[in-house]
# Entry
Amino acid sequence: MSGLGPFALELGLGALLVAVFVAGLLARGDDRRPIAWLATLGVLALLAVALLLEPAGPALGGRFVQDGLALFVKRLFLTATFIGLLAGISLPERAFARRAAEYHVLVLASLLGMLVLASARDLIVLFVAFELMSIPLYVLAGFRKSEGEAVEASLKFFLVGSVSSAVMAYGLSFVYGAVGSTDLGAVARALDGDHPLLQLGLLLALVGFLFKVAAFPFHMWVPDTYEAGPTPFVAWLSVAPKAAGFVALFRVYFEGTGAHAAAWVPIAAALATVTMLTGNLMAIPQQNAKRLLAYSGIAQIGYMLVGVAAASASGTAMVLFYLVAYVFGNMGAFLVVEALARAEGSEAISAFRGLAQRSPLLALAMLLFLLSLGGIPFVAGFWAKLYVFWAAAEQGLYWLVLLGAILTVVALFYYLVVARKMYIEPPDRPGRVPLSPTLALSVLLCALGVVLLGLYPKPVVMAALRVAAPLF
Amino acid sequence: MGLHAYLTLAAVVFAIGLFGVLTRRNAVGILLGIELMLNAVNINLVAFGRFHADLGGALFTLFTIAITVAEVAVGLAIVIVIFRVRRTVEADHLDLLRG
Amino acid sequence: MIPFPVLSIITWAPFVGAVLIMFTARHRPLAVRLIALVTTTISTVLSVFIYVVYDREAAGFQFYERVPLVPPLGISYEVAVDGMSLLMVLLTSVIIFAGVFASWTVATRSQEFYALLLALVTGVYGVFVSLDVFVFFLFYELAVLPMYLLIGIWGSSGEVRPRGVFAWAFRQTGVGTKEYAAMKLTLYLLFGSAFILVGMFALYVNAGAASFSFLDLEATTFDPTVQFWVFLAFYVGFGILAGIWPLHTWSPDGHASAPTAVSMLHAGVLMKLGAYGVVRLGMGLLPEGATDLAWLVGSIACVNVVYGALSAMGQTDLKYVIAYSSVSHMGLVMLGAATLTEAGLNGAVFQMFAHGVMTGLFFALVGLVYEKAHSREIFRMGGFGRVMPGIATAFTVASLSSLGLPATSGFVAELLTFMGAWRSAHPWWLWPAVAGTFLTAVYVLRVAKQIFWGPPSPHFHHLEDARGPEWVALVLLTAVIVVFGVAPGLAIGPVDTATVPLLARIIRP
Amino acid sequence: MLTGSPTLALVVLGLPAASFLALALLRPLRRAGRLAGGVSITAIGAAFGAACLLWLRATSRAPLTSPSTSWAWIPADGEPMATVGVMVDELSMTMAVLVTLVSFLVQLYSLAYLVDEPAPSLGRYYAYHSLFAFSMLGLVLAPSFVQMFVFWELVGLCSYLLIGFWYDRPAAARAAAKAFWITKLGDLGFVAGIVMLWASAGTFDFWTLFGQAAGGTLPTEGLATIMFLIYLGAVGKSAQFPLHIWLPDAMEGPTPVSALIHAATMVTAGVFMVTRAFPLFGLVPDVLVLVAWVGAFTALLAASMACVESDIKRVLAYSTVSQLGYMMAAAGAGAPGEAFAHLVTHGVFKALLFLGAGVVIHLFHTNDVFRMGGLTGLPAVWVPFVLATLALAGIWPLPGFFTKEAILAGVLEGGFVGPFVLLAAGAFLTAFYMFRVVFLAFFAPAHGGHHGHHHVPTLMAAVCWTLAGLTVALGLRTALVGEHHPAPAWLPWLSLALALGGVGLAWSMYRRGVPDPAVVAAALRPLEWMARRRYGLDGLFAAAYRWGLLALASLVGWVDRYVVDGVLNVLSAWTLQGGDRLRRLQTGLAQDYVYGVALGALCLLVLARWAWS
Amino acid sequence: MTGEIVGFWAVAVVLVAASLGVVLTPNLFHGVLWLALALVATVVVFLLLDAPFLFGVQLLLYAGGVVTIVVFAIMLTERLVGESIRQASRYVVNGAVLAAAVLVGIVGFLVATPGPGGRPAWTVDLTVALGEALVGPWAVVLQLLGALLVVALLGALYLARTDS
# Structure
């Protein structure tokens, strides 16, 4: 079975998927949470495996690679999924208890798509994995199907997503047509000549990736979907597929392209600019915490695009590191919103009033997440921003760095508004905010991640640099 | 006929599909537009595959068709559920979430 | 030389205090204060110790410590002090030591207050002792951020009526409230740090040495264009913190809204970080950039001096007067630095110290007055000299230092600045600087007259003079003002050992 | 022992300093009141002794090669940037003796004068006095411009504190600030001047500067400007036109303070400075001309205002201004020695005048000369005062006669006819207004019922008599052994005639009513009107302050708040609104989102076309 | 050759016309029928491109499967709402302009590309080759596709069914 070595994680996940599916078929009764535990612990086990795995050689004739980069992001996907699933176990609505199997099958299937996407070195594999990742998400966004907002969000997500994948597929068809092969290595090699069709194809394909990572103006599904979706799912949605989108982007646009990667600098820089700008500005007037985080997430993507704009090994590595920081910071923030929403029945920012006096630790955790998102020293996000800026500066994109750094200030404005609600304003009602143990644990994990990465980012940075280096 | 003829045809179909997506009010209508766009993809792929004498195009088309079917299934399910909850499938009426 | 990491202890002792307070002293206000006192005392005593022990003959950076943090990127925790930072460390110690006493009476959420305050102090120390530019930046951010909560929670709101063509904007942003001030201050300073960040990266990339160490960067000669732009970036970035016109407007609002100890620290020390950054990084690393842009730095500084003083005169809110006086005095600091002369630069550094102590004292006093009279409106107060003679005396000393009266440290600083200005490439700078001292005399004495002199009002008969711990702050700061004013050599001796080599690099033929 | 001189000078300087520190730092001592006074008096008395000793020892020896001894104060890489030390020469020693003497006497006098003052307040008073004595001594002993400026400002501070000694009186508070501001205005010039001098000569040190001046190595370019700026300091401190306006208001302080600071010592610092720096002023004749003219003009202007003043202390204040004008005129005319001599004698008898006035005020509890009178029977009160008045009016053989005559001679000798005429007219007015006061305050019929206790405290009387004795002694000494300034033979007679004329007119008007003062006032209506309003100068300054400075400040404050900060707030508000506007892009309609995708794709194509071409 | 040209033009006209019908007809049901026509036309294009296997797949899956599902969906929603669904268009001009712009953008790239000389000859039987590929190197991907279809079905079922 040595030939299956590179697929270990995918096979494991496939088995888990089948197990959950079968368990769903067998389960009876209204409370099917054991299935949730099965999926969660299964993902945890896979994460453990992933941490032990070593990079393996290519498989499927080079269409599938389990290299360092793939492994790096797969660990990230699994971590994010574990935290997301853990937080979702205690979701109070009946739908999640009764339909745990469906929910988890969909999540795991999407995760499978991500895992494959991270390894795909072939256009067809890439596209199939991309769709496998995306399609379950449309359903999950509308999982609370009796709620008008949820299904509306689902429809919007689906429509925009489908159009984007259609454009992407169209682009991929041109790529294939220009190269004559679906192998990404061949694509990279084909860049040596002047090939308008290839350019066209890559540009149109970019739309799909940009939709997935939610760069302006392909971001518009994000706020609506986030607002209406189940929060633990949204927390996960806000990080994992984006990470997958970025890694696929690296695979297609950077891996093996060498000096040609520089061609993307102006485009990535322009995208980074508008994304940072609009994300941050649109976040300012938000009253709903999830919407706020949605726009802030868009801005975060803008910052990652700054790293992409560097179009260098260090830029890529720094985006990877950014993603790690982002997973903890952003998920954590969403999960605190979830905790408050369960207690207060409100996802408005005003629900945060006086949190520091009610639940100091929860408030502290939220503050840490916000600071991390804001890029403040000694939490993970600081290093993340700093490193992408660094990478951009190395390429001489000082104006972009300056713009990004200035927009950080705008971002800090709305983060501090939340901090103000928590720390400065008095609480509307007394008493601690009740917190289910699983949710608490997942928040704690995020907080730990943010703090540890903030204090000692070195191992992850070094790993990111190591895995990104072979791309160029 | 040269490759470009097929590509141009596909591009026209793609543009028409896009037009449909942009202008139809009914969610199902939008879906039909998406179908047209994907159809253009298929024409492209087959044409390229043929002119490269390469298997990849056909293979890609096969996967695309299957994926399209999956998408349509999910999309229509969403349309049905939204119709059930909101009593409309007019995309114009669905703006609870905005801003 | 010294067997223990003295600078690290100075820097981190307050932070340890902050952590201890957060985790051990919940709901025990006295313990909170004692921990704060002990940790700041450790820092203070050690700062005095290194000040005494520092070898002036050898000069240069001493008490060196280095721990590599991210070797491949050339980041390390590298600390040392030279004559200039030595004085700044001492200043920080003096101010925070006094600040702990000045805020002894903070009642609400005192544990969080002291924790944040101490964390902030660590940031300030860190900036002054860091040799690694990157770590410098880290500490800088650490010094800025706790401000938000400190002002937001414990600050006080003033009153600003929306007027003029921009009234709508004032209404929209909520000018005058402490939340507004806190937000403005934090964001403005971070806005500045954006420029610093870019400048820092530009240096790093252009040096090609893969090191953020000040010493390595200092050894590099940068391209003139790079020097120009990076100096400009540093000037804008640090200048915002130093309150350069027209980027100073965060400072009056921030200082006026902040609680006593925070105003003390902020106006007293944090604004100095800005000037220190311009001198240390801007001039130290970019001699040609500094030469090219000295005209800009100095001319804007002149605007600061006069404009700040006039603005201060135009205020009716006591805290705003003092806050604007900082704008004016920071102008003198920048002016001294911009002269690129020994006298001017020594004057600038000494002015940082002098102004730090003086404004610290001012804010301590204003805080006391506000706490007792519950008013900041100058023209509603009067005759306080009768009921609070101690405060009145200290206020007078601070005023005198502020207007540059001899025998206070303010005079020496101003004199040196004047001397530098007239010898600089732009002698006309002397006139605004001199005019500034007159304007200062007008507004500080006017305020002193209004508040402390005149017939005592029956409204204020019940007011008390400073009490217990508050005296410590007042006496300490007053004493420092006078001692360093009478014997400026205490400070200028070490400072000179740092400024002369700096100038030697700048005025290289 | 020459080496002993600096030490002794330091003792002179150190005693009041020690006394000040003791009073400032030891709160119980300060609050003990009279005990604090005792400490201060002892210290200044000892300092007086030391100063006399210093004077005796030093005058018995040959001139020194370098009379100054100094130590580094502001260090620098090479030579220290500024030094402190003492400079012991005749000028400084004479001043030291004068300062310690008058200080000592005034402090003694105060003990009786301020007998009603609460103890803590009295302690504060003596602390200020000690500080003042120290500062003034530091000023006169200064070997360099920087040190002189340092103490120059410190005496200004003491003046401020002592004028505002009764700080809860609004008038005192106002006067103190006014005095500080106006003198500060002149000091700006002073400090700028010495800085510029330093920049061109490389030193602040008098002796070095004099050496350069004598050797011709002092750069003369810009020297006139520099010396003019330095002179501005003297204009402020020595109350020269147009910065003289603070001195009359300074009379809000306790009378002994006026005697010491605003008559005998501090206000003469300007004259002292010009004298001290005369080797430098000598190089810039243009500035000297200005000094002379301003001095002479000030002398006459102040005299004219004194003629219409009814507050006894203010009359004396104007007379001080006027006399300072004489001194400055002499210095400007190239006769600094004469100026200095007048400074010394004036110090003695003007202190006496104030202290005498203090006695009267003590008796009447008013400053208004028209409400005094009927003191003929109290010679202890009027004799010293009249003696001093005679000295001031310039009646032979009192010292004022000699020194004033020397000044007139000096001015004439310098070829300044215009100033000479002004000064001569001033001399007449001086005699007139002083005797106007004497006749009104002492010899006018008593006002009914308003007689306080007619007891003069012994201490006060003793001090007055001492000073009176000193005045006479000084005069006799000059008359008998003094060197007479070479002058035209008619000058003493003219001088005497003017003085006697003034006395006579005053006698005739205020004792005989011929001509009736009211008629004279009516006849000189415009002039009287102007003089009473101080020629509008106070108003001008007040207007400049209120409608110039404060209005400008309000404007700048307004601009800062509503324009500079306004721009920032507008930017912030725009950012907020921008967020709100952009938010409207998010219409909530799925197809608009698709528009986003399509537009985005289109833009990508266009951008790529543009970027890759 | 000429046969192909004629065929192409004929199919192209039909395809474009049918596509326009899809997006322009006000009746949704007609729209679906137009789509079916367009898909059939596409199938013919595949034939012109020597891809008979895809011809079959497309015909069965698309023209058969997809259209059937859509019709079901329409009937389902019509039944629920109780009236026939007619649809209007929004912002037709905007949509047309944007779609045309995108078309121009794409064609702009196309015209910049030199076309290949002609069709190379097929050396293999496409259907067989496809079959071999799908069970050979592409089996794993096919599995993945299977997973995708199953999950999509599961999701569609979850959404479409009514929970009691």
Notes: Residues 259-472 of chain A form one domain. Chain A touches chain E at residues 7, 14, 17, 21, 60-61, 63-64, 95, 98-99, 102, 105-106, 109, 112-113, 116, 124-125, 128-129, 131-132, 135-136, 138-139, 142-143, 145-146, 154, 178, 195-197, 199-200, 204 (CB under 8 Å).
